[in-house]
Amino acid sequence: GKCNYPDRQTYSKEDEHDVQWKKSNELDHGCRNMPTSNMGIAEAICSLVKQQSAADVDLDVFDDNPLEYNYFMSLFHELVEKRIDDPQGRLTRLIKYTKGDAKEMIKHCVQQHPTVGYKNAKDLLRQKYGNPYSIMGMYRQEIKNWPQVKNGDGDGFQKFLNFLVKCESLTQSK
């Protein structure tokens, strides 16, 4: 018999063991191409697949360091927001992947409507940790306090280079 997969290609049962499922964004594309009569079911399946794949991803916990805020939010967007459509699910994960003052600051947002709570939590984090001018000031301070790298200290030069690349990416960010 034949099986139709979300990418709309047809495979025989004999070839089924050779079929590799497409990544979640390709599954989304396949769901968008489903006939409208199957749209509710297709959307539910796609949402479930996204949620299951998001649960398997390791995401670093944000620990109140403003120098790591953009990194954290970029990964959070890629690994959670693109896979979880539900604002309550996003808020739950945002709280789970923060600690310290950041977590304490946004925990109350679960008491709000999910859409409002999630937006408020992100806004609070951005206001406290995402101000590019204060982040640049912190980078400047870190450069001032950087220990002198001695001639022949390859590891020291590499760490300083990595830090400078981070600084440069901030000046070129959105």
Number of contiguous helices: 8
Q: Note the gap between the termini.
A: 51 Å
Biggest sheet, open or closed, and with what strands and sense? 2 strands, antiparallel
DSSP strand tally: 2
* Rg, Å, rounded: 22 Å
**Arithmetic mean of pLDDT:** 78
**Major sheet: order of its strands?**
1-2
Structural class: mainly alpha
Which blocks of ≥5 consecutive residues have pLDDT under 50? Answer: 1-32
The succession of helices and strands, N to C, reads: EEHHHHHHHH
- Summarize the amount of helix as a percent range: 55-70%
**What characteristic shape results from the CA principal axes?**
elongated
Features:
disordered N terminus; 8 helices; two-stranded antiparallel sheet; 3% strand
Would you write up a description of this structure?
There is one protein chain. This protein is mainly alpha-helical and 174 residues long. The protein has helices at 24-32, 39-55, 69-81, 87-96, 100-106, 114-129, 132-144, 154-171; strands spanning 2-4, 10-12. The protein has a two-stranded antiparallel sheet. A hairpin with a 5-residue loop joins strand 1 and strand 2 (10-12).
Can you give me a brief rundown of this structure?
The chain is mostly helical and 174 residues long. It is built from 8 helices and 2 strands, in the order ββαααααααα. The relative contact order is 0.09.
Topology overview:
Blueprint: E1 2-4, E2 10-12, H1 24-32, H2 39-55, H3 69-81, H4 87-96, H5 100-106, H6 114-129, H7 132-144, H8 154-171
Antiparallel strand pairs: 1-2
Helix pairs in contact: 1-2, 4-6
